[in-house]
Amino acid sequence: MRRLRACLGAAAAVGLAAAGTTALVAGSASGATSALSNRWYAAAPYLMPLDNDPPDPAAIMDATGLKAFQLAFVLAPNGGGCSPTWGGTAAVSSDTAVQSVVNTIRAKGGDVSVSIGGYGGTKLGQVCSDAAATAAAYQQVITKYGLHAIDFDLEEPEYENTAAIKNEIGAAKILQQNNPGLYVSVTTAGTADGTGWFGKQMLLEAKSQGFTPNNFSIMPFDGGFNGAASQTSALTNFNQILQSTFGWDQATAYAHEGFSGMNGRSDTGEYFTQADFQTVLDYATSHNMDRFTFWSLNRDRQCTPADNGGRTSGTCSSVAQNSWDFAKYSVKFAGATPPSSTPTPTPTPTPPGTGCKPAWSSTAVYTAGNEVSYNNHNWKAKWWTQNETPVASEWGVWQDEGTC
Fold first, then answer.
1. What is the per-residue pLDDT across 379-400, written as a single tens digit (0 to 9) for each?
2. Helix or strand or coil: residue 70?
3. Residue 54 has pLDDT above 80, yes or no
4. Percent of the chain whose pLDDT exceeds 70
5. pLDDT of the residue at 349
6. What is the helix (H) or strand (E) element at residue 74, kind and residue range?
7. Strands 68-75 and 85-86
8. Of 155, 205, 270, 388, which residue is the catalytic one?
């Protein structure tokens, strides 16, 4: 459930041709652009354009071939009211900063979707009077940026509010009807069983309103997950939930199912590496799933010791990687081929020397009192740890014992 977003600042085919292209006519301050294929919007990773040290989207596009970005998050104003803002503070109506990001992406042939909701903050569905008022607020966002796609990120605490979810699902249905061709995704929390009780209630609300988005996506992380196998198991279970809720067969359910992962170290200390992403990507494409995305591009770069590498961060992944490694899996899902790159780097422990303890290993398990050397320093473990890079931190697992 993407806690970092709150505390730090959230029948398809593999080929592009199978996804098709839909056009949406919408007014925009910068002029509406031609839509990308739906597959690109389905592959768009999340990007916070105003928080968490936003990376340059043009640089990401050049390095990876990525064309679509999921901008996050639109919320209700912190001071109250039924009008859209970025993060509760920056009014959409007067925005120029995010518009500049959108213009940069579109100037290079790309496009954006906008995500509403996320973890934490006040959502428009909680404060607007009804579904129509909620939809009117979101329509301002669609019109302002000439959107062809939108994401409803329904999670804590909003999805525990029955009235709010009724407003959000109702608004999604209205927007879908009033904006022909609009690509709509609905994202919610994932569990080992697929999704929890509140996620299932959200699906039942969609069924009762007769609303079918392009996909329902789950976020299989922050819930006791451990690598790709646990995630694909959750996706299989979620498929069964979609079948039983909507009366779909397995193929139809997969064609309306999506995955939203978290690259690197999750909020709860789970790790998802490039290999995990490849495994889930293979699962998604082989089952003709509709969406493959992740949280977030702000985190799609390697940490430095100053970033508290080995701890969860909103601005880096805490795993060994080249910048934008994870974005390339989104590019592959869209049906494109990312540019080739150098191999993923691995941490280089300091070789034992005079006075140095045995070199730290990312695969070894250490318990309290174990000593290692790394970057010309000796370190002592304060408690059990594995794959947490030694770094000086008052609250971290490693105690710096000085140079060696």
1. 788 777 878 888 776 567 778 7
2. strand
3. yes
4. 88
5. 44
6. strand 68-75
7. antiparallel
8. 155
- Cβ-proximal residues to 365 (8 Å cutoff; 6+ apart), any chain: 384, 385, 386
Report the DSSP beta bridge partners of residue 75: 85
Amino acid at 150: I
Which residues make Cβ contacts (< 8 Å) with residue 284, sequence separation at least 6? 235, 259, 291, 292, 333
Cα–Cα distances in Å, from 271 out to 220, 233, 268, 275? Answer: 12, 16, 9, 11
Find out whether 330 and 294 touch, Cβ atoms under 8 Å. Answer: yes
Helices (H), 80-227: 97-107, 124-127, 131-145, 162-178, 197-209
- Count the residues in the chain: 404
CA distance 341 to 325: 9
394 is a catalytic site residue: no
SS3 274: helix
Nearest to 257, CA basis, from 274, 230, 234? 234
What whole-number distance in Å separates Cα of residue 256 and Cα of residue 287?
A: 11
For residue range 159-184, what is the model confidence (pLDDT) as tens digits?
Answer: 999 999 999 999 999 999 999 999 99
- DSSP-derived secondary structure for 303-372: --GGGTTTS--SS--SS---TTTTHHHHHHHHT--PPP-PPPP---PPPP-TTPPSBP-SS-EE-TT-EE
How far does Cα 259 stand from its chain's mean position?
Answer: 9
